[in-house]
Amino acid sequence: MVFLNQATYLQGKIHHMQRALLLFTCLLSGLYAAHAQVASHLPFKADSRQPYAANPATHLQFDGYLGEKLQFVTQHSINAQDVASLVAPFKERNESSLWQTEFWGKWMLSAVKAYAYDTTNTALLHTMQQAVTGILATQTADGYIGNYAPGKHLQGWDVWGRKYTLLGLVYYYDLTGDKKALAGAERLLDYTLTEIGPGKANIVLTGNFRGMPSSSILEPVMLLYERTGNKNYLAFAQYIVTQWETPEGPQLISKALQNVPVAQRFTTATPEEWWTWKNGAKAYEMMSCYDGLLKLYRFTGNKDYLNAVVQTVANIRQTEINIVGSGAAMECWYGGQSQQYFPSMHTMETCVTITWMKLCYELYRITGNPQLLDDIETTAYNNLPGSLSPSGRFSKYSSLQGFRDLDEFQCNMHINCCMANGPRGYTLLPDVAVMQQQQNIYLNLYNAAHAQLQLPGNHQLQLQLTTGYPADGDVAITLQPDAPVNAAINLRIPAWSAHTQVAVNGKPVTDSITPGRYFTLQQTWKKGDVITLHVDMRIKTQVHHTPQGDFAAFTRGPVVLARDSRFSSYPIDAAITSTGSNNDTAEQAPAARPGAWLYFTRYNKTGSGENPVNIDIPLVDFSSAGNNWDVKSRYRVWIPVEYNVSGIPAEH
């Protein structure tokens, strides 16, 4: 009866949305007419938005593994970018189908975050200033910034490119306060409103993939509404989500509330339809729309918007995201979690990886659900570094087996979509690591770091995280408040940590600790107080049964392990006879091996003869597997398990 009532409720909500569509469109037309093209700006009060559950620390500096990665990416992927070449396409308005104009905005997003992380990088700030000056110089008198020919506006990736230009300008404005950047963004959006909306072009019929790329402009629309108070922008945002629910639209709200899997929301596209408007399973663009929907939720409080994102993220996690924290094949959802044991073409697009991380982060900020942090951590220690080459270039696709290689440049340029997007995964992590809400402090990532926080009462608190995590499971958190302060320190307990130990100033905490939740320590903290944390770093075996046979994979903490042909004289595709116990009885420290960040061995039996061979299988972290980017270096995550028809353990 509960399920029947829920289904009836959802059907009623969807029916109500459909009935309201025509009336709402008419109201929007009136709202557009009632305001000048640039409305008077209305500043917002703090209580006019749904509050965030947590906000990033005032400042955070990584050390250790993530610090090294972020520094490397900043130097080789962000600082090294030829920005003039990213501006150049905007000067030539002859495009009708390609996506050159996304690259400038993607680079700007990562550059802004990289500079905010390290404000000593003055050369990067100067490059950003040049990039903004260059892009604004291409703006036409009517406000357009883009490279599409006058008769080709709204086709292909035109609106998608405008989205990234808007995001780049808004992020730069937030960093510098440069009002020219904000004005340029407003002019571009105001021009877009003259082309799309009631009585004009239907946004879900523009571009490709059921209008999802175009309608993901919702995110910068809401950012501009937040910064300007222009009611036209809020009206446009509401118009977008209303068009989603039309028969032509992607129905991102109603299908989510009905819990329709993301890969099954529309008929599977034929090969001829795959890259066209008819394909409604494009992963990256769909998640981008939900990112914008969360920002609209904050101003409307419409629970359907939030629930649609919550349901979709849960469905993506359950049906699509694989063991290393990414998903999709041929850039689309395909029920990939159950298919990850087998080779698939063009899996784990880096743009999908980055957007999954960002969507999880934005949803966490609203809900405070630590499961989303487990999602981010899995990606951050596996597929994100796995897609980064030694040159600093991100690959377009990654695989759970095979070899690593770099993909082609795009749009007759020196870059592709994933090269431009990849750095954003690393520049996101400082915001995730330590967060707070008033006196509640959330320790979310345990990489070595130094964080500064501003507490109520004008108190300052510094945190020092000393650890080799995830190479080891020991974390020491030293607190340095400017005066004794009462605060709640919330430690994220990873879902994979079956046995976790916590102590304060050397005294073990005896309260129950639950994996997958926060463990809270509330007290008055003094300078020099130390919290120690130990998480479970035993190697664990995951076995999955499929109609084609069983497969096993090994994990250690948040890190997925893989076979790599460089470290094994035994064929990496050979089946293992037994998977051993699910958990090792003792933790194993990583060994040093050139070419591997983390190296372990795992005892197993292999071979189908009368006397199976006892071997120690070499295993390396997924990001190190195949990281010489040589086709001769093969790796594999999921290892076939030999079928035992008798069921008698192989040891007997």
TrEMBL record:
Source domain of life: Bacteria
Q: Which GO terms describe its biological process?
A: carbohydrate metabolic process
Is Signal one of the keywords UniProt gives this record? yes
Specify the Non-reducing end beta-L-arabinofuranosidase-like GH127 middle domain's residue ranges.
441-537
Record domain Non-reducing end beta-L-arabinofuranosidase-like GH127 catalytic: where: 94-426
Q: Does the keyword Translocase apply?
A: no
Its signal peptide is 1-36
Q: Which keywords belong to this entry?
A: Signal
Among InterPro entries, the record links this protein to:
6-hairpin_glycosidase_sf (IPR008928), Beta-AFase-like (IPR049174), Beta-AFase-like_GH127_cat (IPR012878), Beta-AFase-like_GH127_middle (IPR049046)
Protein's UniProt name: Glycoside hydrolase family 127 protein
Supply the source organism for this entry: Deminuibacter soli
